[in-house]
Amino acid sequence: MSDLLYHWERWVTFLMPPLLHSGFFTGLQMGQGLWRVARNQQLQQEGYSEQGYLTREQSRRMAASNISNTSHRKQVQGGIDIYHLLKARKSKEQEGFINLEMLPPELSFTILSYLNATDLCLASCVWQDLANDELLWQGLCKSTWGHCSIYNKNPPLGFSFRKLYMQLDEGSLTFNANPDEGVNYFMSKGILDDSPKEIAKFIFCTRTLNWKKLRIYLDERRDVLDDLVTLHNFRNQFLPNALREFFRHIHAPEERGEYLETLITKFSHRFCACNPDLMRELGLSPDAVYVLCYSLILLSIDLTSPHVKNKMSKREFIRNTRRAAQNISEDFVGHLYDNIYLIGHVAA
C-alpha cells in the first residue's frame, strides 16, 4: 500500500502542473459541458430524461430554464451553444442567394459588373432586366476590345452591346484561325472601317488576338504596321524598356530576317521622334539607335540562353558596342548592360 501511495504522490507531483498549464482539464470540462447541453436538448425534443419520462410541464420548465441560462453558460463555460449554432446555420441555408432586384440599382449593377460574359449570361436567367442592361455589356466590350469604329458612330436601329460582344468574340476567334477572314468579318458587320489606321487602333487596343497570327498579318500589311508603330509613345523611356513595350504589342519573329530588320528600323525612327531632346543630348541618330537595338537583342540572347556558357561581360559589351557606334558614351552603354542583366530579355 505504501508503494502505491508513493507512486500516486509522484504522479500528482510531476504530471498535474503540465496538464493544468496546457489547459487539459479546462478543455475536458468544456467538452463535458457541451455534451450535457446537446444531450439535454435531445432529451427535451424526445420528452425523456435520464430518470424516465418527463411531463409536458416539466419539459416546458426545463426549456425555459435553458433559455434563461444561455448567456450564463457562455460566460461560465466559454463554450458554443450548439442549439443556436445549428439554428443560425439552418436560417442561412434557408435564406439562399441575395435578390439583386431588392437592392438599389447602382449597387446591383456594381455587383454584376464584376462578372464575365459567361456568368452575366447565366445571371440573366435570374435577373433578366438587370443582367441585360446595355451599360454592363458596353463595359465588357470596351474592356476587351478598347477600340472599334462602331463606338464612334450613331448606333443603328436595334443595336445591342450584348449582340456586339458576341460578334466581337466571333470575329476574334475567326482572326485567330485566319487573320484576313477575321478582319473581313469585322468589316462586314460594320464593326471596323476599311482603313489601315482603324485596323491598327483595333489591334493596339485588343489583347485577345493570337500573336503568331497577328505577326503574319502585319508582315503582309505593312501599311497597318506603319500606323501601329505611330500609336506607341516612347517619350522619356529608357531604350531597353521602350523596346520591351514595342515587342509586347508587335511580337518579334523567331529568326533574324527582313521582317525583324523592318521592325527595328521603324522602332528606331519612332523612338528618336518621341525623344528629340535626348537624342541631341546623347548625340544619337536613328542609325545609332538601330545598332543599339541589335546589340540589346544579342546581349539578351547571350545572358538568358542556357546554351551559352561563357556569358558576355559588361566590359566586352561596352567595347563591342562602341566599336559599332563610336559617339555613344561608355556610361550609357554600361546602363544598357545593367538593365538587360537585371530585368531580362527585351523581346521575351
Automatic annotation (TrEMBL):
Residues 162-343 form the SEC7 domain. Keywords: Guanine-nucleotide releasing factor. Signal peptide: none annotated. Residues 97-140 form the F-box domain. The keyword Transcription does not apply. The keyword DNA repair does not apply. GO terms for cellular component: ubiquitin ligase complex. GO terms for molecular function: guanyl-nucleotide exchange factor activity. GO terms for biological process: regulation of ARF protein signal transduction; ubiquitin-dependent protein catabolic process. Transmembrane segments: none annotated. PROSITE patterns: FBOX, SEC7. May promote guanine-nucleotide exchange on an ARF. Promotes the activation of ARF through replacement of GDP with GTP. This is F-box only protein 8. It comes from Oryctolagus cuniculus (Rabbit). The lineage of its organism: Eukaryota, Metazoa, Chordata, Craniata, Vertebrata.
